[in-house]
Amino acid sequence: MCNRRDFLVFNPRTTRKFPFFLVVFLAPAVICYTLFMIYPLIESLRMSFFSTTPENKTVFAGIANYVKLLTDSDLAPRFWGALRNNFVFFIIHMLVQNPIGLLLASLLVSKGKGRSIYRTLLYMPNVLSVVIIGFIWQLILNPLWGVSESILRFVGLGKFFQPWLGLPEYALPTIALISVWQFIGIPMLLFYTALIGIPKEFIEASLVDGCTERQVFWRIKFPLMLPTVGIVSILTFVGNFNAFDLIYTMKGASAGPAYSTDIMGTLFYRTFFGQQLQLGNPNMGATVASMMFLIILFGVLLYTFAFQRRVKNYQL
Amino acid sequence: MKKAGKENRSDPGTGKCRLYFTRDYFRKKSRGLGKHLLLIFFSVLALFPIALIFMNSFKQKKFIFAHPFALPNAKTFSLVGYHTVIERSNLFVNFENSIIVTTVSLFFILLFGSMAAYALSGYRFKGNSFFTFYLAIGIMIPIRLGTASLLKLMSSLGLVNTLTGLILIYIAQGLPLTIFILSNFMAQIPGELKDAGRIDGASEYRIYWLVLPLVRPALGAIGIFTMVPIWNDLWFPLIIAPSAKTATITLGVQQFLGQFVSDWNAVLSALVMAVVPILLLYLFFSRQMIKSVTSGALKA
To answer: Please, are residues A283 and A47 in contact by the beta-carbon 8 Å criterion?
Structure first.
């Protein structure tokens, strides 16, 4: 007799084998994902432990590639420079993009009128390609055109204008700020979502108790938003250590002037494909990619264990 | 009057009607104005670079430099940049490639993703949590890091410089997040609904097909959010499919701009042509797109 429960609910205790329809449902995704994502990632890690001899033979090299990347007199300065620049890039995003995103989100929450228009406009740069953004800003900052200079002069800061993109000490912060300009919409929307999720009663109660608006923000809203702060931070981290397009568009693979805008993504591209005088080296490229992998993994683990576990997720 | 404002703070029950026209009222009003001004400032900042490019793409070269902030008028109007772009560039082929790559990838991401999500959320079976975890790894780890061996793999499969190669990569890249989000959505569908279908004799495949329309809002949101990075990607077109025949719009524009750097009319027009389609699409869908984020559809 067919038991009614077995008929209705798929029960692992009564159905031992892996039913065929589940294979049909899972196979396309699992195969595609394994073949074109997991396998390349693992294979890339494996490649970093091999090297190619001049006779075009692949030999096991142990950690020689890593040692070379971290200590070689040609490679190591590039690696440490790119790592440092990448941290600067990340810190500028954390200090500028995310606080302004939060500010915009709280402004949006308090303003009923025109909210959707502001939201649409502020999020807009996000959907444009980084290539286009890079070129547009290159034109705007170009001293030949002089648009930014005349704007600065208009607000009385004309004498501060410099060809920022061409100066080693300013190029990286300038590009980071352009990236901030583009991606500001993401933290804005995430913070906005978190803010509208906070029950009105909390805020009303604290206002009744005599809190000022600032106190309400820092003592009530901000602690409740901490999970979002964490998500925004880790998204920024992964995004920044994976960045490439903007710098490649604005500065090319050599990330000039004098490697001052070189980050991990451009270093990876250069070691992998080579540039003018230097031949590409897939194994060294894989080594750089593996270092990026480790950095990103470190960030994600730090977030999961040091942050996510400690921050309480209040059920609102 | 001053007193009334203070009173209101300590006595919220009765103060409500007296709030009007106190100092607090005006302070609030002006603060509201300040907030609007700030929002307007940032909106202008977001819009200005694009507007500037747009305006100047319709001007003659000397006016681009002489009056960059002026709107084009009868005297300054010129389409010379657009002529150059249409004659000298490959942008129409690039558009076609981008449209093919984006739509085909999107279709398979949503199909494969929803199938896997349906299996993972609807059934308890051995290996369920393993597959859930396995498929979620890719959310945080960028596929780019595997580029070195992806290129090797693609060349051994003969897929270098083909759109198929790009599409396969984008499907793999899009699946993890899609499956993660859709599983959460499908788990909320009441089991009774599926059981009703089973009693009526529907196969599991048929039930999947019946469940699919119920998650349509999520499918739409995921669709839009997966589409934008695929359309805008530079890395994989540059590495896997850089040939003129297979270049996508992002790569095509990048190369065109590189060649015509000094032809300002052409550069500005190419930028506008690359911006306009995605911008129109965005303005058309922005409401749903933003709503889907803020309603928590994409909440991790």
So the answer is: yes
Structure tokens at A73: 């007199």
> Which of A30, A127, A285 is closest, CB to CB, to B228?
A127
Whether B143 and B271 map to the same domain: the answer is yes
Q: CA A15, CA A8: separation in Å to the nearest integer?
A: 12
Contacts of A35 in chain B (CB under 8 A): 153, 168, 172
- Say whether pLDDT at A6 is over 70: no
pTM of the model: 0.84
Torsion of CA A281, A287, A292, A294, to 10 degrees: 170
Q: How many domains does chain B have?
A: 2
Quick one: pLDDT at residue A314? 60
Q: Cβ contacts (< 8 Å) between B273 and chain A: which residues? A: none
Which among A35, A100, A131 is the nearest to B253, CB-wise?
A131
Which of A36, A180, A217, A273 to substitute to test the interface with B, most B CBs within 10 Å?
A36
Q: What number of C-beta contacts closer than 8 Å exist between A and B? A: 275
Nearest CA in chain A to B37: A107
In terms of domains, do B22 and B135 share one? Answer: no
Q: Which structural domain, as residue segments, surrounds residue B37?
A: 2-56
Residue with tokens 């001899």: A53
CATH code of the domain covering residue A94: 1.10.3720.10
Q: pLDDT digit string (tens) for B124-161?
A: 888 888 999 999 888 888 888 888 889 999 999 999 99
For A200, A203, A209, A215, A259, the CA distances from B10, given in Å and listed in that order, are 19, 16, 8, 17, 61
- B214–chain A nearest CA distance, Å: 18
CA distance B195 to chain A (A): 6
A90 assigned to some structural domain: yes
ipTM for this model = 0.82
Q: Cβ contact (<8 Å) for B153 and A39?
A: yes
Average pLDDT over residues A115-124: 87
CB contact under 8 A, A37 and B138: yes
Dist. CA A303–CA B9, nearest whole Å: 41
Average pLDDT, chain B: 83
Least confident of A152-161, B9-18, B127-136, B225-234: B9-18
